[in-house]
Write a structure and sequence with these properties.
The chain is mainly α.
Length: about 170
C-alpha cells in the first residue's frame, strides 16, 4: 500500500523542524557563558579573599621570576646540577641511554635463551612423538600382516572343513 505524497512531505517537515530546534538549542548552549550553565557548581565554592596589594614597582612577571629564582636556592643537589656544563649533562644522558640499552639487551638475551630452551624441549618431545608413531606404525603393519595370514589360514581350514562335509 503506497503512502500519499502529502504524508511524506509532512514527515519531512517534522524532521526538519526537529533538526532546527536541536541546532538552535546547541547554538544557544555554546553561546551562553559557562557561569550561567554551572551556577550550582559555582555557588558551592567559597569566596576568595585576597590581601594582595598592588605595588607599581613589581609586575606579575617580576614576582614569578623572583619566585622561580629562589625556588632551589637551598638545595645542594639542585645547585650542583645547575653548575654542570652542557658537555657533562650530555655525557650523563649518554651514559643513562647506554645503561637502558644494556638492560634491554640483557633482557632480550634472556628471552632468546628462554625461547631456545623451550624450542629444544619441544623438539625433543616431537622426536619422542615421532619415535612413538613409528613404533605404532610398525606394530600396525605387523598386526595387519598377521591378520592377512590368519584370514588365509582361516579360509584354508574352512575349505578343508567344507570338503569333509561341514555345513554352516
Amino acid at each position: 500500500m503506497a503512502y500519499p505524497s502529502d504524508h511524506r512531505s509532512s514527515s519531512r517537515g517534522t524532521v526538519r523542524f526537529v533538526l532546527v530546534l536541536v541546532g538552535l538549542f546547541l547554538v544557544i548552549y555554546m553561546v551562553t557563558p559557562p557561569t550561567l550553565r554551572h551556577s550550582k557548581a559555582l555557588s558551592s565554592c567559597p569566596p576568595c579573599f585576597c590581601d594582595c596589594e598592588e605595588d607599581p614597582m613589581f609586575s606579575p612577571i617580576d614576582i614569578l621570576n623572583s619566585s622561580l629564582a629562589d625556588c632551589g636556592k637551598n638545595d645542594p643537589q639542585l645547585n650542583e646540577e645547575m653548575k654542570k656544563d652542557i658537555a657533562t649533562l650530555l655525557a650523563e644522558e649518554i651514559n643513562l641511554q647506554k645503561n637502558v640499552t644494556d638492560d634491554v639487551l640483557n633482557r632480550t638475551k634472556a628471552l632468546i635463551m628462554s625461547a631456545k630452551r623451550a624450542s629444544s624441549h619441544y623438539q625433543k618431545e616431537s622426536e619422542k612423538c615421532n619415535i612413538g608413531i613409528e613404533t605404532c606404525e610398525g606394530g600396525r603393519e605387523k598386526a595387519e600382516a598377521a591378520l592377512i595370514e590368519e584370514r588365509k589360514l582361516s579360509a584354508l581350514w574352512e575349505t578343508r572343513a567344507i570338503e569333509f562335509g561341514w555345513k554352516d
